[in-house]
Amino acid sequence: MQVHRCQLSVYSKIDDSGTETRLKMRQEANMTYDELRVYCLAKAGASEGFPFGDDTAVLKVMSKMFALMPVGAAPARMNLKCDPNWALVLRATYTAITPGYHMNKAHWNTVIVDGSVPADLVYEMIDHSYKLVAQSLPRAEREKLGAL
């Protein structure tokens, strides 16, 4: 049996009925598909779908995709939207961050979560992707999202 020691961070999500759910996330770089998925789905207006088949999860904020993940990949990996300038810096710094696979390479990165990218940076990239996409939503959807 292998034991991993890691620090836990707690995130909370409040659902439509006002019930708060506290989510514990590992703060180590080698995160799993399930941990990344839970983190993404804890965001306001986030949902999951499988429009490309059962092996690829698409995570959306309202009607727009902010993350794409192959189900159960080991190591976990995901495509995330990114500011083009920051995308270039990240790719130059980490070999596990590459231009987005099957995506617009200027605006999307593929992140392989193999332990080489710090966990806090992975979470920051997820948050950044979510915010970029949320800001680009049509006004009616942004207002609905703001009410959540």
Describe the structure.
- This protein has 148 residues and is of the alpha+beta class.
- The protein is 30% helix and 31% strand.
- The chain has helices at 33-41, 84-93, 119-135, 139-146, and strands at residues 8-14, 20-26, 46-49, 56-61, 64-70, 76-81, 97-99, 108-113.
- The protein has a 6-stranded antiparallel beta sheet, covered by helices on one side. The protein has a two-stranded antiparallel ribbon with strand order 1-2.
- The longest helix is centred in the last third of the chain and has 17 residues, at 119-135.
Number of helices: 4
Give the CA-CA distance, first to last residue: 43 Å
User: For the largest beta sheet, what order do the strands appear in spatially?
Assistant: 3-4-5-6-8-7
Which range does the strand content fall in?
Answer: 25-35%
Task: Find the CATH topology.
Answer: Aspartate Aminotransferase, domain 1
CATH first level: which class?
Answer: Alpha Beta
Helix content: 25-40%
Rounded mean pLDDT is 84
How does the major sheet shape up?
6 strands, antiparallel
What oligomeric state is this? single chain
| Shape assignment | globular
What is the helix/strand order?
Answer: EEHEEEEHEEHH
**Could you list the spans in which at least 5 consecutive residues all have pLDDT below 50?**
1-13, 21-28
**Counted beta strands:** 8
Produce a short descriptive summary.
It is built from four helices and eight strands. The protein has helices at 33-41, 84-93, 119-135, 139-146, and strands at 8-14, 20-26, 46-49, 56-61, 64-70, 76-81, 97-99, 108-113.
